[in-house]
Specification:
With about 350 residues, this protein is an alpha+beta fold. About 35% of the residues lie in helices and about 15% in strands. It is built from 10 helices and 12 strands. The chain has an 8-stranded antiparallel β-sheet with strand order 2-1-12-11-10-9-8-7, sandwiched between helices. A two-stranded antiparallel ribbon has the order 3-4. Helix 2 runs parallel beside helix 6 and helix 2 packs across helix 7. The longest helix has about 35 residues. The protein is globular, with a radius of gyration of 21 Å. About 45% of the residues are buried.
Amino acid sequence: MTAYLVWLAGLTASLVVSGMESLRAVIDQVALESGFSGVVRVDHAGETMVCAAFGMADRAHSIANTLETQFGIASGTKGLTALTVMALVERGSFHLDTTARSLLGDRLPQIADDVTVEHLLAHRSGIGDYLDEEAIESISDYLMPVPVQDLATTDDYVRILDAPTVFPAGERFAYNNAGYVVLAALAEAATGETFHDLVADLVCRPAGIRDTAFLRSDELPGRVAQGYLRSEGLWTNVLHLPVRGNGDGGLHTTVADLHALWEAIFAGRIVRPATLARMVSPHSDWPEESRRYGLGFHLHAHTDEVFLEGYDAGVSFLSRYRPSEALTSTVIANWSEGAWPLSKAIREHLDG
């Protein structure tokens, strides 16, 4: 029996190594063919299968991406915003059925009186959006309604958010960036603290992630990758995005921090398991995107897979977690379309 167990352990290890090698071969091939620039990491059952960096963080100065490079994740930020809000719900700062109006006072008067925190988290609020994604012709367009340097604090964003209601609260799902900035404003109003500090204190610190922050685009540290609008050339996104992100986007992070974040989320270190279960339960179907949506998290249409996604000028990002398999895969690219070919190839390989 002992000899059999030793043989079985050796066979299992051999299969794991074989799986790693085949996955790495797929990643290397697709990265080469697509001109991928960024980082990729895949972990299964506590074992890192692949962790690799490709391309340039700074093309002008030939500085390569590394595993320690910090990247923007655009709307991937919404997951951390939702965790911050739910942590405040657990602390009694407000409740899911608290109305936005009760905390906003006379600010943003066009937000309906019955819009709640839960409506905003679930993209079911019906409020107007400061960025109409359906009307965007190209991710490389200059989309900000005010100069980017005017958007640094939550109050700066609030000044551009007031827009007519689109539909009654709760009627249907409609992805909405403004709603997540409103959530940041509600968090500040309820606590008296800045939204950026709340994310650091309620999410980053308990998760043990130190390289995740809302960085200003006009004073980026040396470890941060430039975001490029095209697969080649030097055209960056510095004039396309707010100078500092907020509830709907703009975080910078590393692939290691994202892996640690998933572990912390599902270990109950940020919000309690019952709270998380509510966040990752389907609140809406999103058939146009072949997925469902919870509270701050995208959900696979049929499985227990939970994911965060970001797409913006100079940024593309997808990070998935399958609780039933303890499987995490993350792809972050520092150009607008870079993450999608590799993310698709990884998914197809892992799904077999």
